[in-house]
Structure to design on (286 residues):
């Protein structure tokens, strides 16, 4: 199935079964083409994908990302093929190297160098499978080398916490035939102080992770931008805020820069599902 232009990224660990089904309904009813979900400390990625596929109708479901240290390549391969065989080819396997605390601290594995680790994993995924080049596999790619690997070995990339400037660079590396599915945080808060407070809270857990910090420094942000919760310039780039028209314009900048798909992540106060749904309804016709 084709991957449409506009999707949703959402932290599914926060939701129980009925809440996940409600999220699927609001996404499908408003015409989004895909739901992307992470793998962190809660739900196991492929089991969750099965639930989301079972309780949706025509939605593409993408892992963003499944941690390569959480299952061996053979298991990931069988999961990919099983889910697509049972659910009308609606599953996209997004893979990523995750972060040292999630790999060494949480899982007890050794965190290897990202590019060799991912290349070896892709070798295992595709072993003895001549049709593997057509599989819907994408990589969490921020730096140029991981983007090059995405272009050479997979259907594309799923960058996270990036700007349209990064999207333009990624599009050049990937080329026009690949998927470039970019996540973008959004809120419809129009008060600058309130919007930035939401953004700083949402970004706090990412700002201590070297992979993201290094990516932001490559994009031109400074250590001062990343200090004390993030400068206004940095927060405004990471979390689009304002009225619906302002946010839509920000989303279109990714498309103009070369993104083939943009996944909006609603940013709202903890537990404020109504705010999430208002955001998704307001941005559905971007």
């Amino acid at each position: 199935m084709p991957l449409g232009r506009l999707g949703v990224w959402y932290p599914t660990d926060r939701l129980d079964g009925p809440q996940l089904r409600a999220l699927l309904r609001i996404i499908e009813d408003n015409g989004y083409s895909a739901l992307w979900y992470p793998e962190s400390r809660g739900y196991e990625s492929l089991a969750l994908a099965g639930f989301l596929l079972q309780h949706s109708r025509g939605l593409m479901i993408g892992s963003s990302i499944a941690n390569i240290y959480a299952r061996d390549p053979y298991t990931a391969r069988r999961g990919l093929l099983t889910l697509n065989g049972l659910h009308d080819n609606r599953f996209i396997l997004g893979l990523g190297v995750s972060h040292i605390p999630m790999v060494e601290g949480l899982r007890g594995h050794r965190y290897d160098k990202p590019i060799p680790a991912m290349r070896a994993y892709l070798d295992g995924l595709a072993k003895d499978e001549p049709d593997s080049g057509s599989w819907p596999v994408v990589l969490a790619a921020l730096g140029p080398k991981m983007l090059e690997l995405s272009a050479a070995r997979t259907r594309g990339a799923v960058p996270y916490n990036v700007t349209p400037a990064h999207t333009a660079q990624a599009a050049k590396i990937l080329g026009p035939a690949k998927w470039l599915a970019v996540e973008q945080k959004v809120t419809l808060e129009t008060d600058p102080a309130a919007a930035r407070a939401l953004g700083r809270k949402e970004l706090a857990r990412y700002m201590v992770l070297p992979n993201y910090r290094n990516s932001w420094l490559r994009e031109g942000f400074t250590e001062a931008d990343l200090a004390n919760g993030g400068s206004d310039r940095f927060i405004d780039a990471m979390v689009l805020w304002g009225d619906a028209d302002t946010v839509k314009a920000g989303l279109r900048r990714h498309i103009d820069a070369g993104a083939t798909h943009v996944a909006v992540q609603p940013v709202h106060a903890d537990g404020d599902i109504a705010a999430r749904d208002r955001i998704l309804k307001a941005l559905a016709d971007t």
